[in-house]
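Lecture 7 notes: from sequence to structure.

We start with a single chain of 257 residues. Read the sequence below before looking at the structure.
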Amino acid sequence: KAMDAGLYNFAIAFQERIKISEDKMAYYEEMAEMYVGDDVSPDFYAWVFPKYDHVGVGTGTVVNRPAIKKYQKNTRERVGDKIAGGKIIKVEAHPIPEHYRPRRVQGRIALVGDAAGYVTKCSGEGIYFAAKSGRMAAEEIVKLMKGGSHLPTQAEIENTYIKKYDGLYAPTYTVLDILQKVFYTNNGAREAFVELCKSKYVQQVTFDSYLYKRVQGNNPLDDLKLLGETFGSLIKGYSIAKPDEEINNPVESLKRI
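Now the structure, written as tokens:
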């Protein structure tokens, strides 16, 4: 607010840390789970992520934030016996930015991380990009200061830190935004998404992209094959999916922070 950075749309992420028995915890030793469906989120996914001695169970949504506790309850029910008898040891909730701030630099103030809106769609990852943007901003500003003899201008910060960051990661944000809009917005698309995840090529590209934080792939033949499979999965998904639950919260959906 102090720098008039502008507002962004946001998701609410809700997570419960649940302590489960050792035998149930063994199931998650090499396993993380992702759930999709409008019962757990109308526009994102729900998850079970193993921690050191417990699991994080959560979900998120942009379009129906007031119903987040209902989606969390449904997520616990979907996970079912795998967390039965578990004890909730911590409850966490946080707003997650959906896009860049309108202004990330104002004068000699530069935003990084969540403040700048550096969270990817589709995966919802922000920790890496917070650390990376902070490091990039600091390194570029230190260079611009020339040992303390120069105060960087807004234009200089934009032409160094912002330009370099966007050059590295803007394609990743764009692709993941498209994927979320295509596959997370209705039950038919979510059915297609689950079907596509059986593909070894999709699994490899997803793993590599997550590991290197840049869009991977670049195999024209496999990419063309994947395009055909995507259309086929969408047709099949829409044919078998149950109707989506109607959502009506026009006031809440317009809120920005």
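Strands lie at 10-19, 33-37, 41-50, 55-61, 87-97, 105-106, 109-110. Keep this in mind for problem set 3.
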